[in-house]
Amino acid sequence: MTTAAPRNTILIIDDNPDTIRLLSAMVREQGRVLFATSGVAGLELARSQRPQLILLDVEMQGMDGFAVNEQIKKDPDLRSCAVIFVTAQTSSEAEIACLDAGAVDFIPKPLNAAVVQARVRTHLRLQAAVAALDELANQDGLTGLYNRRYFDQQLAAEFARHRRHQLPLGLVLIDVDDFKLFNDRYGHQRGDACLQEVAEALNDGARRPGELAARYGGEEFVVLLPNTTPDALARYGDWLCRRIAALGIPHPSASAAPHVTASIGLCARIPAEGDTAQAMLHAADMALYRAKRAGRNRSVLAGDEVIETQLG
User: Fold this and answer.
1) Of 50, 147, 242, 294, whose CB neighbour count within 10 A is largest?
2) What's the pLDDT tens digit per position in 10-28?
3) Which residues share a beta bridge with 264?
4) CATH number of 148-308: 3.30.70.270, 2.60.40.1090, 3.40.50.2000, 3.40.50.300?
5) Phi and psi torsions of 89, nearest 5°
6) Is 219 one of the annotated active-site residues of the chain?
7) Is the pTM above the cut of 0.85?
């Protein structure tokens, strides 16, 4: 799960091009700088780029900074973005209003480069610290994958996003075949090592933006694949069966092969109104049950016939 930390992204939303140029020059050494000249454009850019920090002008034509900030706080994809208000209003009442609205800080105009740089640096450090703590809280201690709590949160968010944009969402449930027999034969230490190898294979196969692999519980894993059609998901399930078998972990007690294999349930759909993430999980779970009932070591796409992986 752990990857190299990305470079900070700072979004400036201000309807004054001169202020944008000035702020950009002040903070460009601290991250990648993006800008928008209206609240609507700024929200669209924030949703696509997920900046760590937003420098938001209060006094803008049309949608002002408070209205933009309100939309940011309502959006589950943007709630983690830190907002610093930038304004010519320097009264204590104005500062309190900005902080009460949920901003992490307040920068008055005219801009002082040293002050801007110090406050941006401070809040980027705080964002990095919070992200590190979140990653630890979201991590499965044995495998290093995401844990079920984090997966449930991301499934809900991605399901809502895919329903909003009418895109196909792919879900994969993986169960290591006859794992109890593996533990009985080799002991729990070897069992843990087996799960770690399977987890690494899953993580290697979830590299596109938005994809994630998680430990669902015990010897069960789950993978979330945004914008994935049923045909693409079927190919992924076939590949994943082969990838796990190719680990070559001996398992003489298994029913499907003399090495560790997996049964996989797949579900891909465009979420409709009235559809739920839990219903999608249930469909994938029923497909997993069919894979086990059909002899294990294969993937099954919900609603379709068994897609078998021919392995020796």
Assistant:
1) 147
2) 999 999 999 999 999 999 9
3) 174, 299
4) 3.30.70.270
5) -80, 120
6) yes
7) no
Question: How far is the C-alpha of 191 from the C-alpha of 182, rounded, in Å?
Answer: 7
What is the domain class of 9-137 according to CATH?
Answer: alpha beta
Question: Can you tell me the distance from the alpha carbon of 246 to that of 5, in angstroms, rounded to the nearest whole number?
Answer: 31
Give the CA diameter of the chain.
75
Q: Which of 219, 220, 273, 308 is catalytic?
A: 219
Residue 6 pLDDT class (50, 70, 90 cuts): low
**Residue 23, CA distances (Å) to 26, 125, 131 in order:** 5, 19, 25
pLDDT digits (tens, 9 = 90+) for 125-176: 999 888 888 778 899 999 999 999 999 999 998 999 999 999 999 999 999 9
Residue 259, classed as helix, strand or coil, is strand
Show the tokens assigned to 77. 């994809």
Could you give phi then psi for residue 277, rounded to 5 degrees?
A: -65, -35
Chain centroid offset of residue 66 CA:
27
What pairs with residue 299 in β-bridges? 264, 307
Domain ranges in the chain? 9-137, 148-308
Amino acid at 175: D
